[in-house]
Design brief:
The protein is mainly alpha-helical and 434 residues long. It contains 18 helices and no strands.
């Protein structure tokens, strides 16, 4: 059964699609992650090199998803690729993990990050969890009004995020003094490069979620591949320049020592007003990432329900707004529960390896679909199969490294995902009996 329903409205154009791609990647992490990387590798060329290598890996992934999206522009994106290439059970497990752990956990953490910075800017009489819940509820309500309302808000927030990053870059390049010289840093090993690459790959993740709303894009076979490539390249440029200004103002050693590199750069260049400005930028960035997640991920649960592998009400489309309101509300409600319960940080540690397992499986879909026929005329993965294998190898290395570094939480994440198998069997039996 196709996951695309005729009731979904195609109202997302190329610009909004590009903003969705970029919004799925750029959260609050880029304002902190450069310092994490600098603690693993200690020279400026290697720090920049790791970010460029991570950008190349993200671009390979974007190329893969561009071919998949061009050939199958269906609601649910990655869910649909896994269903058609392997088995509905594989797709269901992805949707199960996305709803219960990956997406809702990430959204709860992002909502809390927004609340923390918002309260610094405007001391409201509300706790972080309550403010995070209000933000999730408000954005959920906006997205229930229609895909045009949701994508317009998402695009506006993404433009503000880009503005915040450009302001940080401009201040670091033109107003900040160069960092004083320091003694040579210790040499870096291949293992330290690998350790530095993992948080970079996480910072570049999220572009795949744009495929979830393919059924609501105008000319998706043409516009979605373009949005993926332009959006990922744009983020690579922004991230590289942010890291460059952090190195210029703080130096490699100073970058490793700080816990908030963007805040320190802006404080050194503009003083207290700079600190306030970057706090606002981080709050907007977190809110924009949250908005993108609410816009995109519910289409996966909608596709699951369309396949009769989830509650049928989740597949209903509102006759006026033409969006899956129940799917959007369900994800919003679970995110609010996690934000109020305060368990999101633990949940995030469970799903790191799981996310990259599904990345690798989705890349493998190209081999299955290529065997069945030639690639889409709209876009084909350049250098396949070598480039596709390279991306799968990168994903495998991240999974192995994550299980080695944090076996307990990685195994719990795997267990939570596999716990979806009994649920799949029950829903499959129920749909067969209907």
């Amino acid at each position: 059964m196709s996951a695309e329903a005729p009731g979904l409205a195609r109202r997302i154009g190329l610009f909004d699609a590009t903003m969705i791609v970029m919004g799925g990647i750029v959260g609050s992490g880029i304002f902190v992650t450069p310092a994490v990387v600098a603690r693993s590798v200690h020279s400026a060329p290697l720090i920049l090199g790791v970010w460029l290598l991570g950008g190349l890996a993200a671009l390979l992934g974007a190329f893969i998803y561009a071919e998949l999206a061009a050939g199958r522009p269906q609601a649910g994106g990655q869910y649909a690729y896994l269903r058609e290439a392997y088995h509905p059970a594989a797709a269901f497990l992805y949707g199960w993990a996305l709803l219960l752990v990956i997406q809702t956990g990430g959204m709860a953490a992002t909502a809390i990050a927004f609340a923390r910075y918002f309260r610094e800017l405007l001391p409201v009489p509300a706790g972080e969890s309550a403010l995070a819940a209000v933000a999730v509820a408000a954005l959920t309500a906006i997205n229930c009004l229609g895909v045009r309302a949701g994508s317009s808000v998402q695009s506006a927030l993404m433009v503000l995020k880009i503005g915040a990053l450009i302001a940080l870059i401009a201040c670091g390049l033109f107003l900040g003094a160069g960092a004083p010289p320091r003694p040579p840093a210790p040499g870096d090993s291949l293992a330290s490069m690998g350790a530095a690459l993992i948080p970079v790959l996480f910072a570049y993740g999220g572009w795949q979620t744009s495929c979830f709303v393919a059924a609501e894009m105008t000319e998706p076979r043409k516009n979605l591949p373009r949005a993926l490539l332009v959006g990922v390249c744009g983020v690579i440029a922004l991230y590289t320049l942010v890291v460059l200004v952090c190195l210029r103002v703080l130096g490699a050693g100073g970058l490793a020592e700080t816990g908030a590199p963007a805040l320190e750069v802006m404080t050194r260049t503009l003083g207290r007003p700079g600190a306030v400005a970057i706090a606002a930028g981080i709050a907007v960035s977190a809110l924009g990432f949250l908005s993108q997640s609410i816009l995109t991920a519910p289409r996966v649960y909608f596709a699951m329900a369309e396949d009769r592998l989830f509650f049928r009400a989740v597949a209903r489309i509102h006759p006026r707004t033409r969006v899956p309101v129940a799917a959007i509300a369900l994800q919003g409600a679970l995110t609010v529960v996690l934000a109020l319960a305060g368990t999101y940080e633990a949940i995030l540690r469970y799903v790191v390896a799981i996310d990259f397992i599904f990345f690798a499986l989705t890349a493998g879909c190209l081999f299955v679909f290529r065997r069945a026929g030639r690639p889409s005329d709209a876009f084909a993965m350049p250098g396949h199969p070598v480039t596709t294998v390279a991306f799968i190898a990168i994903c495998a290395a991240v999974v192995v490294s994550t299980f080695r570094e944090d076996p307990v939480h990685s195994l719990i994440g795997l267990g939570l995902t596999l716990a979806g198998l009994p649920a799949y069997v029950l829903w499959r039996a129920g749909s067969s009996a209907a």
